[in-house]
């Protein structure tokens, strides 16, 4: 199937270099060999020019808030990418360093270069720098959303209710299967051997300048194969009750796709099509899941794409900062330091359990994430301190931290994409979540589940 033109952006115009030895695909956000519009587009261009295709990946150890936990999961996935690309006759070259500079180096022999699209500030800056320095055409293909971000909306959206009708109007056009191309030119390309030994993820990660205090987890293994296996299992029995059970952490009704989406190891289109075609689950279950996967997730992309200060308290709407400011000096019954919070040393055993799940396994159910974050606001000396603490903990421990969803969800805790509620101490008119939240599910069963998960991690 033809790649929709709305996914394509020419970052540098021009005709392909006549003496180019290959077409180059700079893989960065979409770290997968299947279900990847950017890769399939690059194959089309290589076939048209009768050239081999080279895939380059630059791995920096300077990504903000990155640590060994994140990188181990990512490298597990990259090892699978390298093997899968070889089967498709695509040469893989990986190297440590600034991603844009590594891509620029290999572009010197390329007829043209293709890249995928990222939405965070650092990802946009990499592409901007490459577009400025490169001396061959540079085509950017968007594959990490169902509906391309600027096609969905040309501006920062106020809430899900303002983006939803725009997405729904367009999504049938973009919810179309992506066919895999056959690489016609199978000759090995003139490219240096990959400098990344992906055969031993732990060894490679240990050699990098990272925060190694937060290590790998066994609850999740990286890679597209693992993502597909989990998705298939989710769309079996548990999906039949997703609509009613998705907000019950102890019900095991979550898909656990967020780490794989964050690292680009599976695409949102593949998941959406699988959900639509699932034999289990009714219309309500499917609609509920697609709302989270497409509308809510792409609202988050919209936020970080259009809001430059997405990781700062200043990104909050004026009414949020005003009401929080008016109640900044309200008495707090409990105030905890970031160290105490990270250790799960509060008076609330359910909050402590959620922090333990996050710290030990890299994941927390979304229902608990909301409660967890609202309590940090309640237990911090100021809303600004709470915002910084929540974001640091989120990005440090979650496998899917440092993501558009993460930045947006943290800001939601402080009122972004929400409306004013009845006023109360500390929160002002920001939505409050208290003990009643824990009555919506079996909180004691959740604690028991976390204990088992944490023990399994400790025994690995």
From TrEMBL:
Return any one Pfam family short name: DNA_photolyase
Q: Which organism is it from?
A: Aureimonas phyllosphaerae
Catalytic activity line of the entry: cyclobutadipyrimidine (in DNA) = 2 pyrimidine residues (in DNA)
Q: Which domain of life is it from?
A: Bacteria
Does the record carry DNA-binding as a key word? yes
Q: Which InterPro entries match?
A: Crypto/Photolyase_FAD-like_sf, Crypto/Photolyase_N_sf, DNA_photolyase_N, Photolyase_Class-2, Rossmann-like_a/b/a_fold
Q: Which GO terms describe its molecular function?
A: deoxyribodipyrimidine photo-lyase activity; DNA binding
- EC number(s) in its UniProt entry? 4.1.99.3
Q: Which family does it belong to?
A: Belongs to the DNA photolyase class-2 family.
What protein does this entry describe?
Deoxyribodipyrimidine photo-lyase
The cofactor required is: FAD; (6R)-5,10-methylene-5,6,7,8-tetrahydrofolate
Q: Which PROSITE patterns did the record assign?
A: PHR_CRY_ALPHA_BETA
Q: Which UniProt keywords apply?
A: DNA damage, DNA repair, DNA-binding, FAD, Flavoprotein, Lyase
Q: Which GO terms describe its biological process?
A: photoreactive repair
**Where is each Photolyase/cryptochrome alpha/beta domain found?**
21-149
